[in-house]
Amino acid sequence: AQSVTQLGSHVSVSEGALVLLRCNYSSSVPPYLFWYVQYPNQGLQLLLKYTSAATLVKGINGFEAEFKKSETSFHLTKPSAHMSDAAEYFCAVSDPDFNKFYFGSGTKLNVKP
Amino acid sequence: GAVVSQHPSWVICKSGTSVKIECRSLDFQATTMFWYRQFPKQSLMLMATSNEGSKATYEQGVEKDKFLINHASLTLSTLTVTSAHPEDSSFYICSARDLQGGNSPLHFGNGTRLTVT
Lengths: 113, 117
What we know:
By secondary structure, chain A is mainly beta. Chain A is built from no helices and 12 strands.
């Protein structure tokens, strides 16, 4: 069985501050992990993915995430938040065959000027 | 990059009518498409997996006679909400799996906002 837990349904940061969105996973097989971003009334856009290669994964828009097996975590970070980063972020896990994706409950990021 | 087109982007219908939502993969073949439902302020809930040329696989608790899925070609899957009721109002998102795509195995449509009055 696979699942992800996102701690914090809402995160608020000031523009220019560090962004940290937390994701912990549970998987009985080596996981593939993803972060997606969703803007209002839109679908999901892939930010980055981990597929058993480098544990530090760099994505679009300056985001990166580090896979830590010992902590079963895949937290998303960005050194300096922009106003345009305000959106909802979803962590997801799938098996290596991409047969099914399981999404976390989402974290809404608010960026204050 | 790969694009998934979902249509319509929003629809309002009366209770008791049926609504069809289309999901098309525009520049790749998708043998598998997924249908998700998203309630306000919640995550995506997988409803069903749509396989080209065969019957869809529904998740537990999803009524297959209520949510009819047809995947007749490698680029098109449709979800029909039959005899819609206000509780069916939700945001429906499709995604398509591109096994040839190097960047992401899942590409998402922009969703359909269904409101049943």
